[in-house]
Amino acid sequence: MKLRIDDQEHDVSVSPPAADGARRVVVDGNEHRVESCAAPPDARCLVIDGRKVLFHVAASPDGTWVSFLGRTRLVRTPAPGLETENRKQKTTHRSPSASQAITPTFPSMVVAVLVQVGDEVRRGQELIVVSAMKMESRLTAPRAGRVKAIRAAVGASVKPGDELVELEPATGGTADE
Fold first, then answer.
1. Residue 89: inside a domain
2. Which domain holds residue 161?
3. How do beta strands 108-113 and 120-121 pair?
4. Each residue of 121-146: pLDDT tens digit?
């Protein structure tokens, strides 16, 4: 199957569980051994190649937001019948005035705002730090741009869908830098 994580498409195959419950997962030709582990009620846990990873997952109209190892990613399956190239064109050619909101993936509290209105940011740069159940998650810029608005303050309680930071394309740059 194909999965789109942020703006990159990946080939993924998952085997049925073996006798010990582990699955063989192949991502873009790289094989991994994956098994479930115990997790708090608001999270999921996997052991990937012997490394325990805790995930937070939240569904949205755009796909599924997955937060792990300090990163938050949007995971989607491409729409049936759309070719990869058409899908890429649809997602990467945005109007110059298009803005993008940064929202948390789970109910949390803002513990740090790392940018200011007007700041130029690069793809992957940390913008906001939120905390839930004593676990911090850093919300990052999905693309290069300029901070158009900040709608969160340290100490504020936030939930999925709350717009914390709004980005607009950087002057003279492209949306995918």
1. no
2. 95-168
3. unpaired
4. 998 888 998 887 777 788 888 888 99
